[in-house]
Amino acid sequence: MPSSFLSSGLTNSKGAGNYDGWLIRLDGAGEVLWQRVYGTNKDDRFAAVLETPDGYVVSAYSSGLGAGGADAWVMNLNTNGAMSESCVENEPWFVQPSDTGYLFVDTTLWVTASSAQSGDTDIAPGYPDYPEDLCQSTCEITCEGQADPETGMEPLNVQFTSTVSSVGCDGETSVEWDFGDGSPGSSEENPTHEYTQQGIYTWTLTVDVGGFLCTDTGTVEVEERRCVVTCSPTGDPVQGFHPLQVGFIADVTATNCIEAVTFDWDFGDGTAGSQLENPDHTYQQAGIYTWTFAASADGETCTGTGTVTVEDPPCTVTCQAEAVPITGQAPLEIQFTATFTADNCIGDPVFTWDFGDGAASAEQNPAHSYDEGTHNWSFTVVVDGVSCTATGTVAVGRIPGDCDGSGSVTIGEVQKAINMFLGVEPVSCGVDCNGDGSVSIGEVQKVVNAFLGLPTTC
Fold first, then answer.
1. CATH number of the domain at 140-223, out of 3.30.470.30, 2.60.40.10, 2.30.29.30, 3.40.50.300?
2. pLDDT digits over 218-245, tens only?
């Protein structure tokens, strides 16, 4: 495949006016590399174009150059289609045919014009009515058009941007956009255009700098407008003890949709679902529940799913225990009472009392008799391996002189106390209240008071 092509023709829509010569250079893919228009405001047409090592030779005729009528016109162009800075010579030349098939001149003859008669070999001098800018044709233009975005749904607003650079060009620069959809074009450098219907549109940018042209093309793809529904539903928390309240969030985005979005939640536990966007739901029983969600609009649906793990709450046990009375004289009868609450437990309670004097009980509410002393008791209840403990203290005293533990003092026990005071009998029976190993007269008086029924303790 050739790397490039050169096409010649004529145009009456571009250039100086009337018909002008038109050259277009294309790459191997048919894309325009450059295009130029040559001529005056009269009829100027190309006849043939030949390639040379340095560019091109163009044979043509012009009604706007030369002596009048249609005169011969020969141009030597560089590879960019530009003429030299000295393109019109006013001296005659003798022209000889060349083996290469075109006329060769041994000087820098770029443009000549003649009104000579047939058979003449002398080329007439140029005429002073040549346009001054005819030799100013070393203009080189580059142009690029861009469309943003290049694809999208209808209606699609596209920003077009043109970038133009030129070297050696005279004249004003004009820009013309053809949007490819049959609508009026634009002469703005960076216009905005709205495509209203689905399709692939080829746009064209044409830049004109003093009659020299540059074009660029591209495409915009407009898709049919459609509704898009996206969602990211979630539930929080995802795990816990029943009753477990879960907050659900739909997180739905509906784009290009006409209908309002509808919501459908199924919580997965057999209860009624919800059509709210962000509902709350309480799970009452333990289990692993799979919830589902759907959001719909214009026939488009987005779905989501997730799980909630609900567990039985743990067994908790609370308790209280008391002893009545908590103080008194030995022997002292104590009634113990215990209460407890077991939540979320399924087993039977197990009770353990430790009375602090070596004795114990497995009853919930036992009674126990204490001898003299201070006793620290404890109560423990255990359900499903979960325990609760309560503790307390009982203080038990003894009536001084009550040797037999009957709770009262006899006259004989009074005599024993007196004997202890006199040192006749060893100290015993709780008479030595202060524990100094002897019995004082005051301690004997305590025994007498107890005999008389008066409240007495050491």
1. 2.60.40.10
2. 999 999 888 999 999 999 999 999 999 9
